[in-house]
Amino acid sequence: QVQVVESGGGLVQPGGSLRLSCAAPGSIFSASAMGWYRQAPGKQRELVATISRSGSVHYQDSVKGRFSISRDNSKNMVYLQMNSLKPEDTAVYYCNTKHYYDASHFDDYWGQGTQVTVSS
């Protein structure tokens, strides 16, 4: 069983910052593209940011310039730095691991989610 574990959520005021962390197994990390998704109440899960095995990043338009995704391959960790948070960023944030077992096929693994609430 592959365990993906998020941490770092919480309550923050509008304009504040949070950093989410995600740990994935070392046996698959370097062969995995990593991503953060979020799901607000009553809404579908949506992509927030991804980082490829080579470090290329992609962001949802609404978080560009405010959020930053990074990975530390030596620690098997991926991070999401969230700045200038808005109430509409409130959601459960999920870490996703796409483990490529060949050039074009992968297995998907998800964490349990961490709550981020932006409110005054």
General description of the model:
The chain is built from one helix and eleven strands. It has one helix spanning 26-29, and strands spanning 5-7, 10-12, 18-23, 32-39, 46-51, 57-59, 67-72, 77-82, 91-100, 106-110, 114-118. Strands 2, 4, 5, 6, 9, 10 and 11 form a seven-stranded mixed sheet that branches. It has a four-stranded antiparallel sheet with strand order 1-3-8-7, with no helix packed on it.
DSSP, total strands: 11
Shape: globular
The major pleated sheet works out as: 7 strands, mixed
Order of helices and strands: EEEHEEEEEEEE
DSSP helix fraction = under 10%
Rg over CA atoms:
14 Å
Distance between the terminal alpha carbons, to the nearest Å?
Answer: 39 Å
Low-confidence stretches: none
Structural class: mainly beta
Please state roughly what percent of the residues sit in beta strands, choosing from under 5%, 5-15%, 15-25%, 25-35%, 35-45% or over 45%. over 45%
Number of helical elements: 1
Mean pLDDT: 95
Concise account of the structure shown:
The protein has 120 residues and is mostly beta strands.
Please supply descriptive tags for the structure shown above.
120 residues; mainly beta; seven-stranded mixed sheet; four-stranded antiparallel sheet; 1 helix
Show the helix and strand layout.
Blueprint lengths: L4 E3 L2 E3 L5 E6 L2 H4 L2 E8 L6 E6 L5 E3 L7 E6 L4 E6 L8 E10 L5 E5 L3 E5 L2
Parallel strand pairs: 2-11
Antiparallel strand pairs: 1-3, 3-8, 4-5, 4-9, 5-6, 7-8, 9-10, 9-11
